[in-house]
Design goal:
The chain is an all-beta fold and 640 residues long. It has no helices and 53 strands. The strands form 13 sheets. Strands 5, 6, 7, 8 and 9 form a five-stranded antiparallel beta sheet that branches. It has a five-stranded mixed beta sheet with strand order 26-27-28-29-33, with no helix packed on it.
């Protein structure tokens, strides 16, 4: 059953999550990318206390089995392990002890042992070790060199074995080997080659059983002999389509009615799946499979709309399966879902809201990788996510549709839809709704090559540049008389839009070619800075920079170059201006959102908000809200 919670936002992306009992109460513990550790109530509606580590990029947290200490592994600045303690002040008041222990090292993950020590996994330039650490002093108790790297480790917190030690299981980065280690002397007790195919990214104990799902869709259960943990049996559940994923998290919840049954919850990149496992007879499993899924393959394309007739703010987002999902502000469950092709894949590459005369509600236009333009059928924004409606095909072009942008007079029949494609062309269209036939009429106004292919030997730094120069983004001038395009060819081209009223004909005249970016130019936006009353064009590129171009005497000049302070390798994928052009926002290939002040060029915010590449960002002029989508299948809405 889905429960809507009034969640309190965290400062940045949550990278680690635990549920745990402390002081006879149930808590959630989260750690963010920048190292903020928070203790929450069981509804995520109240923060009891928080503390920040001195090292960012937290990757893993673990809690003491019979205590209140929490270990956090971080990777930045050569990494570290930080051990915090939670203190109870009264029945509903808690705090993190300000005195904590920090140990430097390349530690990826840690788990607490039965002796309340820490087993830490270290990967130091492909030199792999398990290290047993005293959490009181930070001293090393024992260590063991490993032949291969480790994917995941998990302790048995409820074991029922005839041993005087606990067992910790782990899987390696190579093959399908499940290893079990003595948590006291670090000796390998058992190594099991799990039959089947696929990598095992997550494992979990259930009593004496170890559950091992793989990304091929199989689920293996290793049943350890409680009298002799070196003896075991393996049961395998037939392949489950819902388990096919690159990464996933697995959680087990015991049944209160039947000790033999337990619920298995698996959260992968795109869905939450639950089903019941019969621990005595695995063939009786796969009962009552349930699945919650929104975007399932790389979110791509996003837009926001605020329209008086719908009396709210809505976000449209697409993905590579061809799904288009409509979201309502402050509502985490979607309103509506459309599909470009119900029978196959017509992957969404870009999308935009549109408002047509003679039509009551806004609609969404979609451009796809197979060169098609679609539009959503009429819908009234009522909650109906469980049914999927097909979209209406408008036309097919010669090449992948990479970007689209309406001229700024979107609510009139004179508005123009500019569409860019991967063969370097730009197309201009007008769209009308015919009430008499309840149909749409897409009118082609003009098309020409905007960025011709280069000649000569191919430079491997730039995709398929010798074949064509993709148009990656389009921006209309605030007055709608000009537009700008950018491309894989590292240039920005500014065009005059000419209209001959006598023959009802549109053409484009090249005004200026802007150069300076050293790799593909990925995104553009163009607005008027209201404070300075000047026309501002911004561009982003794979060279990790945003350039600000100011029009001086009818020509654009590069006024400033903006850089992020992100340490990891990245490119900048999308850029946008707020309505008054006071601020500039960009999204990066490694999931960061960065905001600069236009006048002084200073960074105002820089936070990791996605686990994947940001594949769409928009700053809505009417609402001042920012929306982003990503290859991690998440859609985010921000207020700045």
């Amino acid at each position: 059953q889905r429960i809507d919670l009034s969640l309190i936002p965290t400062s940045d992306l949550i990278t680690a999550l635990l549920n745990s009992f402390l002081f006879d109460q149930f808590f959630y513990i989260t750690c963010s990318f920048k190292g903020e550790l928070i203790l929450w109530n069981n509804q995520f509606s109240h923060k009891y206390c928080s503390i920040s580590t001195k090292k960012a990029k937290a990757t893993h947290i673990s809690k003491e089995i019979n205590g209140s200490r929490i270990a956090v592994c971080s990777e930045y600045e050569n990494g570290c392990l930080t051990i915090f303690k939670v203190n109870q002040l009264n029945i509903n008041q808690f705090e993190f002890d300000k005195n904590y222990l920090q140990i430097n090292g390349d530690f990826s993950m840690s788990e607490w042992t039965s002796q309340n020590n820490l087993l830490v996994y270290q990967n130091n330039d492909n030199d792999f070790h398990f290290i047993l650490i005293d959490p009181n002093t930070g001293n090393i108790i024992n260590q063991k060199k490993l032949d291969v790297g480790v994917e995941v480790i998990t302790p048995n917190k409820k074991q029922n074995l005839n041993t005087n030690y606990n067992l910790i299981a782990f899987t390696s980065l190579k093959g399908r080997i499940l290893s079990i280690i003595n948590d006291t002397n670090l000796e390998i007790v058992l190594e099991i080659n799990i039959p089947g195919s696929g990598l095992m990214y997550c494992i979990s104990y259930y009593g004496n059983k170890i559950l091992c799902p793989s990304d091929s869709g199989s689920l293996s259960i290793v049943d350890l002999d409680p009298l002799d943990p070196t003896k075991y049996q393996i049961q395998q559940l037939p392949n489950i389509e819902e388990l096919n994923s690159v990464k996933y998290y697995l959680e087990i919840i015991e049944s209160k009615q039947n000790d033999q049954l337990f619920n298995l919850f698996i959260c992968n990149e795109s869905a939450i799946i639950s089903f019941v496992i019969d621990s005595n007879n695995i063939n009786n499993s796969k009962i009552n499979i349930q699945k919650i899924q929104f975007h399932s393959l790389c979110g791509c394309g996003i837009d926001i709309i605020s329209y008086p007739d719908i009396n709210s703010i809505y976000v449209a987002s697409g993905d590579l399966t061809g799904a288009v999902i409509i979201w309502k502000q402050n509502q985490t469950y979607p309103v509506k879902k459309f599909k470009t092709d119900l029978q196959g894949f017509s992957s969404v590459r870009c999308l935009t809201w549109t408002i047509l005369e003679n039509h009551q509600f806004p609609l969404v236009i979609v451009g796809t990788l197979d060169a098609k333009l679609f539009i959503t059928p009429s819908f009234n924004f009522t909650n109906d996510f469980d049914s999927i409606e097909p979209m209406i095909e408008l036309t097919t072009l010669d090449s992948t549709i990479t970007c689209m942008k309406w001229s700024n007079n979107i609510t009139t029949n004179n508005s123009i839809l500019a569409v860019g494609s991967s063969n370097g062309y730009i197309h201009l269209f007008n769209l009308e709704f015919l009430r008499s036939t309840n149909s749409f009429n897409l009118i082609s106004l003009y098309s020409q090559i905007a960025h011709p292919p280069s000649s000569g030997a191919q430079n491997l730094q730039f995709g398929s540049l010798t074949k064509f120069a993709e148009v990656w983004s389009i921006a209309w001038s605030p007055c709608n008389t000009m537009l700008a395009t950018c491309s894989e060819d590292q240039s920005i081209r500014v065009w005059k839009v000419l209209y001959n009223q006598e023959i009802n004909n549109y053409t484009l005249e090249l005004l200026q070619i802007l150069t300076g970016h050293t790799t593909a130019v990925t995104s553009l936006d163009w607005k008027i800075n209201l404070k300075l009353n000047e026309s501002v064009l911004v561009s982003s590129a794979d060279d990790k920079t945003v350039r600000v171009w100011k029009m001086i005497k009818q020509e654009f000049k590069c006024e400033k170059i903006l850089n992020t302070s992100i340490e990891d390798w990245h490119t900048i994928t999308y850029v946008a201006l707020n309505n008054s052009a006071d601020y500039i926002v960009c999204g990066t290939q490694n999931g960061f959102i960065v905001i600069w002040d236009y006048e002084n060029g200073q960074i105002q915010a820089e936070k990791k908000m996605h686990m994947g590449s940001i594949e769409g960002i928009v700053w809505n002029s009417k609402t001042n809200l920012i929306a982003s989508c990503s290859s991690d299948c998440a859609v985010q809405l921000y207020n700045f």
